[in-house]
Write a structure and sequence with these properties.
This protein has seven helices and 14 strands. It is an alpha/beta fold. Helix 3 packs across helix 6. About 45% of the residues are buried.
């Protein structure tokens, strides 16, 4: 039975095309919201949950991500020569993440009135190969469109419902190391788990904002201010 995860991988390799022109010279995870980078907001929540931001992957403007962590002895930046996507990125970093089960997160979200890493760790059970943190599409900010998953009463996820994946999950990294390709999305793993009835979800009751576009920066800053009240 796997131990509870202590290591976190942060996905920070993308081009941030929706955030242009701000990302023409700055990688999206280093965009400032409320006086702090998106990456540092994420790292702060990870540490507050008693976890370690062990690995950050980088590609676009990777020198800036590397410089950001140059004085952090606990975090390894893995620079990808080509974009490996989420599944390939985790597979590439697997040897640097202790234990079989790890937490992964995006670095372009703002959270308030709760810690997503505490929530996902509380809901995860060792018999769940992957557990995704979700919220109802009507409860999220900065994101339009349909949901990603249906969350069933027993906690299982299937495709096509009203729940949105919030970018944080706990997953058995052996699921990605078993994939023969080097470049692939985690959706490949999730779809296989759905077929087996083994993809699970947990609900975040706090506030979440997608900061994928420039117009969402002010919205995210307001959410942070409200969360401090």
């Amino acid at each position: 039975m796997p131990d509870r995860p202590t290591d976190v991988m942060i996905f920070a390799a993308g081009f941030g095309t929706r955030m242009r022109p701000l990302t023409d010279s700055t990688p999206k995870p280093l965009i400032q919201v409320g006086g702090q980078s998106l990456l540092d907001h994420t790292v702060g929540l990870i540490k507050d949950a008693g976890l370690t931001p062990s690995v950050v992957n980088a590609h676009y403007l990777s020198d800036q991500i590397e410089a950001h962590f140059e004085n952090d002895p606990h975090t390894r930046v893995i620079t990808e020569q080509v974009i490996l996507d989420t599944g390939g990125g985790l597979k590439n970093a697997a040897t640097w993440l202790s234990g079989d089960v790890v937490i992964t997160t995006n670095a372009d979200n703002i959270w308030a009135q709760g810690n997503p890493f505490i929530t996902i760790a509380h809901h995860w059970t060792p018999d769940a190969p992957a557990c995704l943190l979700c919220a109802h599409k009507d409860q999220v900010h900065g994101r339009d469109g349909p949901g990603d998953f249906e969350l069933h009463h027993d906690g299982r996820l299937t495709r096509g419902g009203d729940f949105v994946f919030l970018g944080v999950q706990i997953i058995d990294k052996r699921l990605v190391t078993a994939v023969p390709q080097d470049v692939f999305s985690l959706n490949v793993v999730w779809d296989d788990l759905i077929k087996q009835g083994k993809l699970f979800g947990a609900v975040f009751d706090g506030v979440w904002c997608d900061v994928g576009r420039p117009e969402n920066i002010e919205l995210a800053a307001q959410i942070l201010d409200q969360g401090r009240v």
